[in-house]
């Protein structure tokens, strides 16, 4: 059994998707549609940058989604049939599109609006995020309970990596105390306290865009960030996607859910290897095959490995 997973913010780089665009007509069609729906220079942002423009939340969300879906389009055309789909934060929209739950047009409309409301919320309720590496969840929760101000556990990415999110001073203080407790801390290059209650206004505004989108039944089960399990009811899915902006990403549990349901091949469809690295840390089974694909030659390797594994 295999699962296809899609990365979120942090996996981008200038030049992503260019080789795919040059090789496949279906990818060129996808990028043209993305530009038309979003009214953004998606190709230029992805292929040429500059990095500062690409990484702006309102630009990055549609740009990265275009690359994720381009990889998925090539995999799907080659006959890859996953048992499950999942995405990390923003990547969850690529999963919903791949599952047939959202149209490509609605997917791009939603990620564009999501990027806008998150960028606006970051300005009105500024905050920050840190990855904390090498500290138990229990110890980190203990540290957070002693901090005055708003700071929260945001993403449970791997057994060793948890992201905290919140107000600048409170989150800085929590990161300092985590470091004093022996953790490695890395400040994330984000503009706000995503996946925390500081995004409440963004979630409220985003609900309007979600209400206008047409959610259908997923043809392939999607494992959701908020619940770490599958959901088939389109109206429940709509609610989960509103909650996702302010809820923790339960990535460890999501990967374990897929593994416990028989998945032994994970394909990361999108740039870099962020999710591949996390999955490798979550699962200690040497029988699990973790593959990443974005460039045409990487996709060829994936297809040959899947054929061998199948």
Automatic annotation (TrEMBL):
Keyword field: Acyltransferase, Transferase
Pfam families, per database record: Acyl_transf_1
Reaction it catalyzes: holo-[ACP] + malonyl-CoA = malonyl-[ACP] + CoA
GO biological process, one term: fatty acid biosynthetic process
Domain Malonyl-CoA:ACP transacylase (MAT): 5-296
Enzyme Commission number(s): 2.3.1.39
Any one GO cellular component localisation term in the record: cytosol
Annotated GO MF terms: [acyl-carrier-protein] S-malonyltransferase activity
Catalytic residues, chain numbering: 89, 195
Magnesium in keyword set: no
Similarity comment text for this entry: Belongs to the fabD family.
Identification of the protein by name: Malonyl CoA-acyl carrier protein transacylase
Biological source species: Thermosulfurimonas dismutans
